[in-house]
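Annual report, structural modelling task.

Input specification for the guanine complex:
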Amino acid sequence: MFEQNFNENNNNIIASSENDKSEIKSKKIKRIILILVILVVILILIITLVLVLKNKDKDEPNRETVQDFVVKGIFIDTENFDKLRIRKGFILVENGIIKSFKETNPNESLKLYDYSDKLILPGLIDLHLHAPQYPNCGIGLDLKLLDWLNNYTFPEESKYSNLTYAKKNYELFVNDLAKTGTTRAVIFATIHNEATLLLMDLLEEKKIFAYVGKVSMDRNSPDYYIEANGAENTEKFIEECLKRNYQYVQPIITPRFTPSVSDSYMEELGLLAKKYNLSVQSHLSESKFEIELVKELRPNDSFYAESYDKYGLFGKEIKTVMAHCVHSPDEENDLIKKNGVFIAHCPTSNLDLSSGISPAKKYVNQGYNIGLGSDVSGGHSLDLFEVMKYSIEMSKLRNIYIDTSQEHITLSEALYMATNKGGSFFGKVGIFENDYEFDAIVLDESLVKNYKEFTESERLERFIYNKNAKIEAKFIKGNKLF
Ligand code: GUN
Ligand code: FE
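The model returned the following structure:
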């Protein structure tokens, strides 16, 4: 009996201990599975984070937004064209606006960007460039303007009817523009509304201020690149821009140039500029062949600019920028000055397309509104330091060969055009002055290092003349792009 009980008990004990064992085993398995799941989740999170950070580095250089801050460095700007202003100290920025310059830190509790021994310039302003021509930089330059347009420019621009092509090229353009010293730009796109809006979306995303024009052209253009209902397209484009409520980019009326735009279309564009209170951009007196063509098309005008002025597309209450003005006669210059029209001086383009040598020195010294333009891809580079260098060098050639009474453009005049004067197209922009918007670039001179001691002005001059120069940091209205 006892033995029987014992055996039963024993059997029960064995059974229950086997149950316990299998329970422990299954618990163990569950725990291992749980740990494995957690490890896999952590691994996925790490991989995602690495990929996101990698992409961020590739496309966007470490964007950072700080409301109020102080910047320390050596600030160089131009109150006037004739002299560089060089000041070491601190600039206080509130909400993107310059509040003060001081020799000591005005507010120790704010974030300090310390660029102690670095040169800091106002952001550079590109008053004239063609974004869709970016793939053509540095090619086709054995041709002159009109042949270059027909053989290189129109075929390239026509490709932007394809949004996939437009997206990949405009992304590259905007990313590359963001890396340069340019903080604001006035840009030609193409005749295509959708692609132009896409370009505007990309610039807006990067927080780069820009005027962007859907190009207008309805005559003397190839069949594959010409508008049928130009004014209607242009108004649709403007309406869509208004709907998108952009903060950084805005539309600008853009007749390509008189040879490409019929009188009736010019008239409609003038009405649209007035109706929507928009600015205007175009080309003027760039090359002698172009001027001859305009004379044939409009024999009753006294000079080229009348073909814009007669339709309300030439300054006064309509803010206007005209690229080039290399060969403008005196009456045209008088009207440019009287109407406050901005000249976008594009010396790289004027040499690359053999257009001529602008009297830019005279424009600067006589108080015209004159800024600089890269005119990509008539000009071979987006880099406005390159454009500054050409403005100086080309004016020397003009002084030697064309007009010995006019000296060459100086370093301060080149910077003045690229910052102060160009900036005034955008408002209170282009100098480090109270109430101005804080656009600034910090120069990285590490690649042009030298053991000689240089003055600040010499450091700037070397930077302009040296291809290896890079930008270390860039602010647009207080927003730090990198
Ligand atoms: N005139 C008309 N179109 C153009 C253009 O795309 N570039 C230049 N430089 N001049 C022009
Ligand atoms: Fe141009």
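Residues 1-8, 55-63 have pLDDT under 50 and may be disordered.
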